[in-house]
Amino acid sequence: MPKTAVELSFSKLVLIIATTVFSFTSMSNAYYLMSYGAIPWYILAAVIFFVPYALIVSEFTGNLGQYSGGLYSWVGQSLSQKTAFLTTFLWYSSYTIWLASLFMKVWIPLSILSFGQDLTTAKASFLNIPQVYWLGLGSCLLVFLVMYLISRGFLTISRFMLLGGSLIALLFLVATVSNITLLITNHGHFAQPLQASALLHSPNPQYQGLFGNLSFLIFGITAFGGLDTVASLVDRVGKNRRKFPLAILVAAGLIMGTYLLGIFFWGASANWQAIFANHQVSLGNAMYFLMFNLGHELGGALGLSAAGATILGQVFLRLTGLVLFWAYIGLIMTIAYAPLKSIITGTPTNFWPAFLSKENKFGVASKAVFGQGILICLLIGVVVFSSAHAVNLYNNLTLMTNVSRSIPYLIVALAFYRYRQQQKQAYLLIEQRYVGWASGLVCVSILLGIGFAIFEPLLQAHYLDATLLFIGPLCFSLIALGLYRYFGGRTTSKQP
Hints:
Blueprint: H1 10-21, H2 24-34, H3 38-64, H4 71-78, H5 81-105, H6 107-115, E1 125-126, E2 129-130, H7 131-151, H8 154-185, H9 209-223, H10 227-231, H11 244-269, H12 272-276, H13 286-301, H14 306-345, H15 354-357, H16 366-384, H17 388-404, H18 407-422, H19 435-459, H20 463-488
Antiparallel strand pairs: 1-2
Helix pairs in contact: 1-8, 1-11, 2-9, 2-11, 3-9, 3-11, 3-19, 4-5, 4-18, 5-14, 5-16, 5-17, 5-20, 6-14, 7-14, 7-16, 8-11, 8-13, 8-14, 9-19, 13-14, 16-17, 17-20, 18-19, 19-20
GO molecular function: transmembrane transporter activity
Protein name: Amino acid transport protein
InterPro entries: AA/rel_permease1, APC_superfamily
């Protein structure tokens, strides 16, 4: 077996796909934002976006899994090479800018694991150097460590993906079993009263009415994102490539089930008003509050003393920190590798200069990987070591990528419709008469998300934010077109 491919069992494929898309944080934040009211909106998000998109991605991997370009190949085969490059560049740019913040966020769960609280924002210093500078330096060192590991090939990447995925599955199992145990010991009584009206009305005053519910629907759609990223690795799983489309469908079912069950079972341990009345709770830490509370409540139900219940709460809290740390590492390795692989290996032969596209013995364009690491470090430096103006610049870049990250989903759905009109496929999931519905639902849900993303800051008179959201895709598209014209003139090859 070549070193560029890794033979993964079907169960491992399902685990990697499911835990790459599923987010324990999003599940917890859904309960924080809407309580039980999140459940019908997650179901709607699954119906109008995730189910049809999973079917689309499954068909693409089943028919075009032999190509290493992933998303690039899907769009290139269906529309054009130029559209494929523009789409993949938007996809890649958004993830690269997001990676800079992920490399800095990874220290939060590590701090919680080590100290039981987030100390990353503390105004401390060591050797008269502010802590924020040490965090920046540590993040940059971690960048190059991760890039080195990526350069060792997909076998190394898959091991970290499996580790992070296994730990996420373990954390979900611990939370679910603990909540069920609480239900049993409390004779079926939920900490958050379970009523039919709770599915229709959120206790959160910020999520009321049509506008509030619409904003949560967009949150739900976002929680189901990322399937295209892991699906772009299909060519690296050896002979099991044929099982990848089915693994996507099985994983999609698990993702939907775990989201809905997880939100539902939080009500067994967490009374919404009691937990979230604390003004220190936010989207960034709601999960940690929920897990500490779960451990504390379980300790009390099992007859532990107050001190013992607090210790069990700390155990749950630090377990969450451990799991999230490794989950971040696995996620970082996935999104630092898959989009770059697609844009480097998906393009025609000789598109990029030889030094940039040349693969090492592990099948990785290592110079491109380390070049990406330098870019990420520069972005981290903008945030950590520069002036407030530079930080504003990075924040503006992040805003510019919010819509850019959604557009590839839209183009993939359009490409699928065109692909089914043009090609004869060996692997079919959607009957021809329903192809338009599948593609249309994804397009409508994404356009709804994009429209809301731009409209919301306008309502709040944040006109600069709305403008950046709008011009972001335009700027990245112009850069992509410039790169395509410059490098595309090097070859006339039309390979996908």
